[in-house]
Amino acid sequence: MKQYLELCQRIVDEGVWVANERTGKRCLTVINADLEYDVAGNQFPLITTRKSFWKAAIAEFLGYIRGYDNAADFRKLGAKTWDANANLNEAWLQNPHRRGEDDMGRVYGVQGRRWAKPDGGSVDQLRKVVDNLSRGVDDRGEIISFYNPGEFHMGCLRPCMHTHNFSLLDDTLYLTSYQRSCDVPLGLNFNQVQVFTFLALMAQITGHQPGRAYHKIVNAHIYEDQLELMRDVQLKREPYPAPQLEINPAIKSLEDLETWVTLDDFKVHNYQHHDPINYPFSV
Ligand SMILES: Nc1nc(=O)c2c([nH]1)NC[C@@H]1CN(c3ccc(C(=O)N[C@@H](CCC(=O)O)C(=O)O)cc3)CN21
Ligand SMILES: O=c1ccn([C@H]2C[C@H](O)[C@@H](COP(=O)(O)O)O2)c(=O)[nH]1
User: Fold this and answer.
1) What is the pTM of this model?
2) How far, in Å, CA of 51 to CA of 158, rounded?
3) How many angstroms separate the alpha carbon of residue 218 from the centre of ligand 2?
4) Which residue's CA is the nearest one to ligand 1's atom 25?
5) Which residues contact 215 (CB under 8 A, 6 or more apart)?
């Protein structure tokens, strides 16, 4: 929590105003942030200075793991987070590749599970990483990348957290995740949960101990219409200690994640938090 608050304070104190063409808003922006999560010690990095709707964050990530490309499928899992990008962005609504209501196009999970090969067929990046780690192999390329510039024109948004790189040292699994663009009041609250949970889940289904997760962010910003709430409300609050995440131990494979797992398989213990803050969302 300390590192989150320090990043927020740094943006408020040192941020530079940058105009953003896609949303038509200005963002107070800093470059480069390094966050770390103690997955081994189960210090779940949930924001405590406002109520976090962490279940939606896990639901969203489960949708990426399953390769979903439709906001309706995300809603069924418990995340409404893709409704706006799939259905309200004018550029995407006019895009000839959009296949009707709720279509997100070739984003995130599609790239992670079905990256199109130029010579036909597709690559399942996640399956390869799970298979290698399960037999104790780290080939120094245990990478899942959602970032496919050749298909940006076929999706509603370029991936923000775009690359996840796993490492195995003896029996301990590590994760380094890369993010090019971060909406700190709204998106980071979710992304922290996702990086932590991805490492915890991958360690569980590949039979290893989780170590630390490293989260590297390039452009970290606060939108102009979020600044007052962050500076005058959220940053005035005292944080509480980190809660713990419990994952159903019956989850043992990628197939489990793909088929029967729901949000009921995740529980958070000792989550003390301040009141919710309703930050504006930019499409
Ligand atoms: N401008 C912007 N910021 C983002 O963080 C973001 C995007 N766009 N587009 C793609 C995804 C969608 N994400 C989202 C979308 C909505 C919320 C959101 O509204 N969160 C609320 C309530 C969540 C709930 O009720 O389930 C929050 O208070 O955290 C968070 C992340 C993250 N990403
Ligand atoms: O997981 C996510 C997804 C999105 N965001 C934020 C970061 C930006 O504010 C927007 C994306 O806009 P771009 O113009 O494509 O950078 O969404 C996030 O923080 N986390």
Assistant:
1) 0.98
2) 28
3) 12
4) 53
5) 34, 35, 36, 37, 177, 179, 191, 192, 195
Q: Give me the architecture of the 31-218+245-269 domain, per CATH.
A: 2-Layer Sandwich (3.30)
Q: Which atom of ligand 2 is nearest to the CA of 194?
A: 1
Beta strands in 54-202 (DSSP E): 115-116, 122-123, 142-145, 161-169, 172-183
Ligand 1 atom closest to residue 80's alpha carbon, by position in its atom list: 26
Q: With the C-alpha atoms ordered 150, 153, 159, 160, is the resulting torsion angle positive or negative? A: positive
160 is catalytic: yes
Number of CB atoms found within 10 A of residue 112's CB: 23
The whole-angstrom separation of Cα 36 and Cα 199 is 12
CA angle 87, 54, 254 (to 5 degrees): 85
Residue 63 is inside which H or E element, if any? Answer: helix 54-65
Distance CA 2, CA 7 (A): 9
Q: What's the pLDDT tens digit per position in 195-210?
A: 999 999 999 999 999 9
For residue 140, the CA-to-ligand 1 centroid distance in Å is: 32
Domain spans of the chain? 31-218+245-269
Substitution site in 47, 49, 186, 222 for ligand 1 pocket (most atoms within 8 Å of beta carbon): 186
Residue range 17-42, pLDDT digits in tens:
999 999 999 999 999 999 999 999 99
